Doubled CXXCH motif domain-containing protein
Amino acid sequence: MKTGVFFTAVLGLLLLFFISGAVWADAGPHGGYTDTPDACATCHRTHTAPGPRLLNSDATGNEFCYTCHNGTGASATPVVSTHANTDFANSAEAAFSLACTQCHDPHGNASALAIVREYVQVQAGASPVTSGPVVFTAREGTNSFDDGVSPPSSRICVTCHDNANNPGFPMSNHVGGANHVGGDDFTSLDCTACHTHSLDADLYTEDGFMP
């Protein structure tokens, strides 16, 4: 009698295990990702996260990005600053700034440089507007910052700096990397050769990416 109960219990546990396993496999949280959960742990904690979205820091917005991208912790793109236009003369608009994640996808994209988003979040007045698809795979030439051939919406810099998204003040210098009247020829350079994220190594100075 006891033996029958034992085998029944074991059979029940095995059935529960396999049925539950099937449910986890079909509707689990890790579908589509590679089997490298340690990469997730760089930013997320499952049970002890102090921040929202299981983030391992209570810092928010750009501050969270700066926990690594402050010139000491990240292997690439150290010392960044927000993109604004308050530090140079003749600015076309009032003070503004962008969040890192408006241009960059923190979860990455193997086919894009600098983990630039496929769709950049453009601020149009008080409302964010999603741009057209950005194809940014090179720093020069085709699919670069501004290759002069691809549609404006697909070029990372021109996503904002064209007449549609910046009425009256479109990008006019170095379109396609070419020289402008009275200027120099920058065909062989990319935008960030002059327009860096930060000019003075100060994270909190909004340099506006100006040269």
Remarks:
- The longest helix spans residues 2-27.
